[in-house]
Amino acid sequence: MAKKFKNKTLAWLDYRLPIFSVLREALVDHPTPRNLNYWWNFGSLAGIILVIMIVSGLLLSMHYVAHVDLAFDSIEHIMRDVNYGWLIRYIHSVGASMFFLIVYIHISRGLYYGSYKSPREVLWWLGIIIFLLMIASAFLGYTLPWGQMSFWGATVITNLFSAIPLVGDSIVTWLWGGFSVDNPTLNRFYSLHFLIPFIIVGVVFLHIVALHKFGSNNPTGIDLTLKQEKIPFHPYYTIKDFFGFGVFFTIFSIFIFFLPNSLGHPVNYIPADPLVTPEHIVPEWYFLPFYAILRAIPFKLLGVLAMLGSILILFVLPWLDTCKVRSCRFRPIYKQFYWIFIFNFIVLGWVGSKVPEGHYLIISRICTTYYFAHFLIILPILGKFEKTLPVPLNIFKTLKVKKK
Amino acid sequence: MKTIFFVIFSFLFLIPVLHSEEKIILKKQDWTFEGIFGMYDDLSLQRGLQVYQEVCSVCHSMKRLRFRELKDLGFTEDQIKKYSETFEITDGPNELGEMFTRPGEPSDTFVSPYKNKEEAKASFNGAYPPDLSLLTKAIKNGPDYIYSLLTGYEDPPKDFELTDGLYYNPYHDGKVIAMPPPLYDDAIEYIDGTNASLHQLSYDIVNFLSWAAEPELEKRKSMGVKVILFLIVLTALLYVTMKETWSRIEK
């Protein structure tokens, strides 16, 4: 580890506190597969949007007031009176959507190229933990403006805990800090919303430690043994990640400056009113697939369990997928099921935004069943019977095949 | 692979069939503030302020707006000061512990027609005229919806039972609304002499309400154009740099 630094002060300090050599190892020298495609940009994108969310959130917290009578007004104060307050708030609210979009693509990439398989199971787990923390943080954050959807969303979701047998109602009262969603609820939600991002930073750190243990997976999914198959992270992937940032910031800006409210629900611009229930209570778009699973099942407790299970099942995915070949490139049948799964997930999101009646309910039930069947039936069986294509010994063979 | 995409696309064509619920079509207007370069029409905003002042403000508050913000409409500071002084503001308590009234100042918010929500509800049999500050933002397709609602009052169909004190409006939820038709041809006389048709009145007030809900819109869009142009150039340069860097190992 002890790298020589030319600067004497740096060398002196690094000898005693080796952060510089660690950073150099991680960001400069780290040997990375040379065949990573653009789908591998989404990890660094998730990192940069996390930083953007923390910085913009910190600025918002300097003006926000967590009180049921003042929260909504304080948001409007930010939008109207604070210098560039509208920009900070739109960065934060659009940023939440972007964060989920990026992470969904990041997870999908892992699913496609089998990045969850041995020896990267713990890396995969840490990713799921980050995803769960993001869900919690996004839900808590959405209640803070104390608009109609904030209030009723908080009411619906906290009420899910009442499905727990025997102690459910007591738990809900405990969560609320009272007998309804009220000021104590808002206060603790704000407090937790401020805390969770920093826990995410900690888990992201572990995620990177686990990543660097075996290095990135790559589009072929094979273990890299040749020296020429890897290149130093800098400058090749630093510049590629910067290019990714450029593309992402452009798309992000289109939403911030021209479509800032297109991803949110208009009803949240009406202050919370416990006496008036909105016509449809729907969560933000990134929760809709899970909301659809929740409502597809007629029994509340089972619905809650299915919703939780739909994410927790990812923890055992490395063992449900019995195929030894990682990448979809060499699994022609799984590749088709993969796209059906993605499509099924999007349909779940679409029905999640509808009232669960008639054909919407039927579709949501079919899709929920398929979601679980993909993990519990298709993947274990497919691994045993699928005839995979011949896997190359090193990445150069596939690279050459691709160029022809 | 192709068959999968075929199935997916055929499903996409099915979506409109599933969407066959009855939905009323809004009267879509060409708003000047739409689109990438869309900005507000200042003269329409000024007329809209007059419509709010003379018609809407009798029942509706607009509590998030401050007089000083009227600068965006093209008024001078003197005009705004004079305008705000025509309102009486309750302030206090003073050193004797009493509330007092004073003329309005540019930093004051628009004056609400009621002391509180309860008083408003009491005057309207429980129906509460909502605050208008954020209205266009708080409804899906807000501007077109409010325009359609204001111009959409009509006689109820023959078999439609209408309770006294309610009005028929197909654009409102349940087709019934407690607000009497607020605008009609020549409801007010415009200061600038524009013909005050129902269309013009509705168009102007919706412009004004849209500005009130999103006063930052003009600044936001002009900044957005610059930011995005900058990012496109920066991204292009990064792309070239990336290609140059990678060309070292791709030989």
Explain this structure.
The complex is a heterodimer of chains A (about 400) and B (about 250). By secondary structure, chain A is an all-alpha fold. Chain A has a single domain (about 30-404), classed as Cytochrome Bc1 Complex, Chain C (Up-down Bundle), CATH 1.20.810.10. Chain A contains 16 helices and 2 strands. Chain A has a two-stranded antiparallel sheet with strand order 1-2. In chain A, helix 4 crosses helix 5. The longest helix of chain A has about 30 residues, at about 185-215. Chain A is globular. By secondary structure, chain B is mainly alpha-helical. Chain B has one domain (about 35-215): Cytochrome Bc1 Complex, Chain D, domain 2 (Orthogonal Bundle), CATH 1.10.760.10. In chain B, about 40% of the residues lie in helices and about 5% in strands. Chain B contains 7 helices and 4 strands. A two-stranded antiparallel sheet of chain B has the order 1-2. A two-stranded antiparallel sheet of chain B has the order 3-4. In chain B, a hairpin with an 8-residue loop joins strand 1 and strand 2. In chain B, helix 5 runs antiparallel to helix 6 (about 200-215). The longest helix of chain B has about 30 residues, at about 215-245. Chain B is extended and about 80 Å long. The model of chain B has no long low-confidence stretch (mean pLDDT about 90). Chains A and B meet through helix 4, helix 10 and helix 14 of A and helix 1 and helix 7 of B.
